[in-house]
Amino acid sequence: MTQKRKKAFGFSCQEHSHARCPICCILPPHMLENVVVHGDTRQRDWALQTLTLSSELRGRRKAIGGISFTAQPGEKRRTIYDAKNAQELPGTLARSEGDPPCSDEAVNEAYDSAGATYDFYQEIFERNSIDDKGLRLDSTVHYGEKYDNAFWNGSQMVYGDGDGELFQRFTKCVDVIAHELTHGVTQHEANLSYFGESGALNESMSDVFGALVKQWVKKQTAAEADWIIGEGLFTEKVKGVGIRSMKEPGTAYDDSVLGKDIQPAHYKDIYTGTKDNGGVHINSGIGNRAFYLAALEIGGYAWEKAGKIWYVALRDRLRSGNNYNRAAKIIVKVAGELYGEDSAEQKAVKNAWTTVGVLSPE
Known about the structure:
It is a single chain. With 362 residues, the chain is of the alpha+beta class. The chain has a domain at 196-355: Neutral Protease Domain 2 (Neutral Protease, domain 2). It is 43% helix and 9% strand. It has helices at residues 3-8, 29-38, 41-59, 105-125, 174-188, 196-218, 275-279, 284-298, 306-317, 324-339, 344-355, and strands at 24-25, 78-82, 92-96, 137-141, 150-152, 157-159, 228-229, 244-245, 254-255, 259-260. The strands form 3 sheets. It has a 6-stranded mixed sheet, with helices on one face. A two-stranded antiparallel sheet has the order 7-8. Helix 4 crosses helix 5, helix 5 packs across helix 6 and helix 8 (284-298) runs antiparallel to helix 11.
């Protein structure tokens, strides 16, 4: 397919001039572009439809219906809507806070995983919902026809059903849901610009806390966890374990239709082009591996110390335009403030950022 045709159909959906993108999707555009090039006719149509719709969403925010209000501190307020394969948000009310499970798996998964993410942030970091002010957690399931993505649009979560051949429904994975909700946390805290290295940090933060929510739910230590984002999202037809590997960026999938995982694991290999909003999904692997290495060296449950260091940095220190080098120095400094200068925790964080090439060896 020619570059001209790609642009005509929205292939450059993340290549725009806005530094802050209100629509943050879990799947990077290059993965879907590969499907358009290598998939069969139906797969190409589904991928093209997803890319085009994602591009349109980035151009304008869809109106969010319903009454918006702030819940009381410490009170979950989940509301799940059903788009019924249309594209109007939020859709028809399907389940409210306190309602029993219904017959729709996607509704229940969205409800349960939003609850797990809320509980994680409250119990581990004493955070009152996404904005720390009791923001209601609204979600819409069954968005679009065979829509291959999930996204946070600045106000709510939206999930596609997947095409059924390459991707399963996007509510299946708690880390995917926690990843997208964490975009909301970042939006209300550091507000990392969604372009280039700051955008890669934005995506990495979502992967970090998405992985931590999954590990917290499963009660896994850093050594026990798989560190895969989106494990179980692919169908059996796809050769891959998930959409990203925090442990070994660049190894999550290698498939004839989806292509090969192109995430770099080291800063020397950072992508410097303009695709993917300057590589926000591609280059997040550098930050992901740094967190994995720090958590593994510290040991125990990753959310207890490594997670706290990253969270405090995100909440109090990082700023919108921070690049990897600046962020790494900030995170190392936070580790020292929390656990002591030259502590084992600070050394682990410093070692991690050095190993991935962001900081120079002393």
